[in-house]
Amino acid sequence: MADSAASADVLDTPEAGRRIVRGGAVKVTGFVVVTLLAVVGVALVTRYLGPDDFGQFQTVLALVTIVQTITDLGMAPLGIREFSQRKGEDRERFMAVLLGLRIASTVAGVTLAVIVAVVLGYDETMVLGTALMGAGVLLGMMQGTLAIPLMTQLKIGTTTALDLLRQVGQTGLYALLVVAGAALLPFYGVTIPVQGALVIVTAILVRGVISLRPSFDLQQWLALIRPTLVFALAVAVGQLYIYTALVLTELVTTAFQTGLFAASFRVYIIVAAVPGILVTTAFPLLSRAARDDRDRLAYATQRLFEGTAILGGAALLLCVLGAKPIIAVVAGPEYADAVPVLQIQGVALALTFVIATWGFTLLAVHRHRAMIIANVIAMTVSATTVLILASAHGAKGAAFATVLGELTLAIGYVVALSRIHGAMRPQVGRVVRAIPPLALGLAAGLLVPVPAVIATVLGLVVYGVALLLFRAVPDEVLEHVPGPLGATARR
Question: What is the pTM of this model?
Fold first, then answer.
């Protein structure tokens, strides 16, 4: 355990910030590779299954995610926070209890998801698919829990490699099913062998750091749940409402419109993982700073806000300028009508990037009730507008509802942060400087008469260069920008 403690101590040093910046770059690079592999897998699946079957596939995925999120009690970020703040035997005991509790709650969630699928009238394939996806979720949860020490010790290269292995396995199995001419059902079970293998690899990596034996003690579970229930609800509701849009869309519009929204939603979820990856990398530092140094916490939160905001601008450019080729690659010509849907959701993505920073900061300082209130309001706005707009305007209406939900959540989080103390209120000065670069990037991509792929690359390049020239990039990131542009921006 001494090695573990020594590794965790990096959180108390200035090296933690540098590791997070470098690790964030590694994570994003790894994510790009993972995303490219995911795009290949999604492209194979969407083309092979067609809009109707893919809509069913994505609907089952959304249902399993919703129910699992509810029953999981937000234990993944709780584990990172508590591992960062506990020591010695208390930490080891906590991890054993956490693993046992997450196994039990996930089994309950999968069972509930199957029951809900039956109640909603899903056909036999969708019901069985719910069970198969649920089994994959269980194994993924086990692997994620075991990987908490790797994340907290900032072993970012290792966790990135595990993510890469996961996507290689899933994409490879999707390809094999397509070549074999498989029916819809086996596609639901692709994650089972992949996640099972990763559980074994991760257990080997953390052996000796934490106990691999889960604790199935009801009293210990209750002792863990009682003081953290509000935390769990905050995380669960925060993850829940975005998936609700797809489930509700399937209920109020046609299978074809659901398929269009599912294609755009799939891209949205993939890109929306970027801020989560970056802020999760920094979450151990946020948790330690929340315990020991609120000034350090305010500084870290502000820098993360600035960094994720400019990345959100890049996501907006990607979706607006690149929607046509993205949908063409991911889904194929049958989904051409999903292009404007993705362009609308690009606005939601820009908001998602900054929301991630604020949400994890609120978790770090235990402002759980404020998160619940903000997320419940956002979910109410999103669900209501989906039912109204999706029934009237199909996939485009559901996309607008996503934007409204994210905007509502962003406002709620800003209010919650501002009530902590003045230093936690987001400062928008540097972020405002990113607006002209964003406008220049959009103009370059929309006005220059070149193919959409080239226009997208051009817009992103113009945006990136203009960010440096307008001094909109945080200093900690500028330290790692090479060449004359980096030197100019640092002056």
Answer: 0.70
